[in-house]
Amino acid sequence: MRWPRTLSLYVTREVVSYTLLGLAAITIVMVARSLVRVLDELIGAGFVLDDLLRVVGLLATMLAIYALPVSFLFGVLLAIGRMAGDVEITAMRACGVGVRGLLTPVAILGVSLSLSTLALTLEVEPAARRDMSAAVRRMLVRGASVEAGRFSTVGDRTLYVDERVGGNRLRGIVISDRTNPERPFLVFAESGEMRLDEQSAELTLLLERGDVHIDLRRSEDDRYQRIGFERFEYKISVAEMMNPSQALRAREMPLAELREVVDRIESGDLKPLRDAAPAYATNLQRRYALPAAPALFALVGVPLGMRRKRGARSYGVILCALLAFGYYALQSFCELLATEKGLPPRLAVWLPNLLFAAVGIGLLACARRSS
Question: Of 19, 118, 189, 305, whose CA is between 20 and 30 Å from 276?
Fold first, then answer.
């Protein structure tokens, strides 16, 4: 029989359209849910619109490895389910097109999406996690260093601000600088503006209309000096806060560095690590196992979608939620067994894929027999 090209294009178009619809909805829900978790930190940091947009973009990138497979499963179940409910699949069978003709275009989409997800999990998602940690640190530096209504300590400096306006504008500023014990001084300013230079790791306060009070009583002159100013640029080094000396977590490491750490652990070199030693080998296997989800969802979704009966409107949505939750819950549970219970990481991480593959093959065999 000739390859049903028209049918394949039709099925592909249906699955892609529902997948894109699901991707938009699922991404919005996932990003909003994750954004709520860091909202307190953002508010405390006095974030601006650029900060919010950057955080949303990084969250979307980090969650894409979950949103893409789940939305694809959503698209497969709804597209195939709609075709089954409208008796289109029955008509295809009458024309001699079986399960294989329906599965092939969906499987090609699933494998293509798995390869795209592989590129994300290997380097893009860990890089987004590193950027997110750096972005949150930058915002926390601004928030922790200059928080309205509170005395904040940065090294040997104490800062107080009455009010923050629009995130970076400050009012009622007091600075006590004791970095030089022989020459401490106080700075009072009516207003100012805060700027963070990421390259030099300096927090600059552009102060306006104030006084500098220098205590010279510890010197032989035993004097007290007051200097008025219209504009004064005051800099604070925040290098230690922005660039902590701690090592990266397993999920944040570039692939080459992660491989190096895994090899070092296997050789018995257990230098200080931020995560438990098994977490590094587990995360390495996870980066290769997790992208198989779209291909597995194609294998499971097609025969399940064909079972939809006429009038079962919510069948695809409910089934998508159950399958996605079951797969990722099983992944998390197996990773926990690997990191805390000593289960071999390779077996633990790939076990959910093997189980879903077996279920998918079984469902396809049942669908083929019924046709």
Answer: 118
Tell me how far CA of residue 39 lies from CA of 57, 127, 212, in angstroms.
Answer: 15, 22, 36
DSSP lists the bridge partners of residue 153 as 158
Q: Where are the beta strands (DSSP E) in the chain?
A: 151-154, 157-165, 169-177, 185-197, 202-216, 223-237
Same domain? 310 vs 197: no
Q: Beta strands 202-216 and 169-177: pairing type? A: unpaired
Tokens of 295: 């291909």
Q: What is the sign, positive or negative, of the torsion defined by CA atoms of 42, 43, 44, 46?
A: positive
| Contacts for 104 with CB less than 8 Å, ≥ 6 apart | 8
Please tell me the total count of domains within the chain: 2
Decide: 228 and 214 in contact? Cβ < 8 Å. Answer: no
Domain range enclosing 185? 147-242
Same-domain pairing of 94 and 170 = no
The tens digit of pLDDT for each residue in 35-52 reads: 877 666 566 555 667 777
How does residue 1 score in pLDDT terms, banded at 50, 70 and 90?
very low
Question: Both 129 and 255 in a single domain?
Answer: yes
Strands 223-237 and 202-216: antiparallel
What are 256-308's pLDDT values in tens digits? 988 988 888 888 776 777 788 888 999 999 999 999 999 999 999 888 888 76
3-state DSSP call for residue 119? helix
The alpha helices in 86-124, defined as continuous H runs, are 88-94, 99-119
Distance from C-alpha of 142 to C-alpha of 125, rounded to nearest angstrom: 26
Residue 153, both tokens: 């300590």
Q: Which of 32, 243, 249 is nearest to 137 (CA)?
A: 243
Mean pLDDT of the chain, nearest integer:
81
Is 58 in a helix, a strand, or coil?
helix
